[in-house]
Amino acid sequence: MEKVKVGIVGMGGGKGFIDIFRESKRAEVIAVCDIIEERAKEAAEEKNIPYWFKDYEKMLKLKELDLVVVRTDDKNHASISLSALDVGKDVFVEKPMAVKMEELEAMVKKVEKTKRILMVNYILRYNPIYRLVKQHADKGMFGKIFYIQREYLHNLDREGILTGTWRAEENEFHTPITGGDCHAIDTFRWILEDEAEEVFAYSSKMAYSKKDYSFPDSIIALIKFKKGTIGKIHASFGCILKYYADLQVMGTEGSFVGNKFYYSTKEEEALSVNLDYPGHPFQPLIKDLLDSVIERKSPPIDVYDGANASSIAFAIMESLKIGKPVKPKVFLRKI
């Protein structure tokens, strides 16, 4: 394969990926698609891309197409991905991988059947600070991790991307957990190398009316992992605060709190992390994606990662509904 031929669906969130792929000498964006036809046409003309489409099914008929990038609203992630896999294309799909359990099941089965590459965009695995935390965990420097938590406070409405947009629609299921900080769930699974045994959650709805936004705007979830670690997520769309995200890890031999590593109880001995966080570091992610496509190897964030992260998120929402703990379905790797 001389170059991976890429088609991108969704010229809202996906347009920026044209330049990201172009920075790699191993990929070429040959097609773009958007349900707003003019947006696809404008992107193709601006970026000098040979093909543009309104209907992604027509784009999938391009024989030379190798990789389909899905950057649409959440409810369409699964259907587009499944169609692409069906015709022998590899897929890079935005998180969450799907908005229904039956979609997760269908995507896992389809990847197992077709043996195509499917990678999910859990970009926080490429955050340099989180990668350093993962390295410390892998080396056993925290000892036994008994607690992990993340806060995700993001007033989407102040950025004009919540009320009045697709995220507010009930069939999108874009809650602070399922569509927002499913990142935290994936990060916990990745750092701990463990699956959830049980979840429980509380929520409030005070920032937005039911008419403006269909779901709770603030959620606190507890996750009990199989090896005993307790995880906590606080995800809110209603906070009067600039964007804020914070990761904490606590173990029997060390902790990570406030961007500092503690391996003693003395503050002066804490190791501060002085790493720049360059927004979303897509280049290393795209490198791994292209490696997987070219070398035909499993991607670092595969269909099982995507399915298990969303399965936990769905269980959290079910717990809110019934007021009881819920055991998430675990998707076991078969390939």
From TrEMBL:
Gene3D superfamilies named among the record's database cross-references: Dihydrodipicolinate Reductase, domain 2, NAD(P)-binding Rossmann-like Domain
GO molecular function annotation: nucleotide binding
Record-annotated GFO/IDH/MocA-like oxidoreductase domain positions: 130-256
Source organism, top-level taxon: Bacteria
Domain Gfo/Idh/MocA-like oxidoreductase N-terminal: 4-122
Short name of any one Pfam family annotated for the protein: GFO_IDH_MocA_C3
PANTHER family given in the database record: D-GLUCOSIDE 3-DEHYDROGENASE, UDP-N-ACETYL-2-AMINO-2-DEOXY-D-GLUCURONATE OXIDASE
UniProt-recorded name of the protein: Gfo/Idh/MocA family oxidoreductase
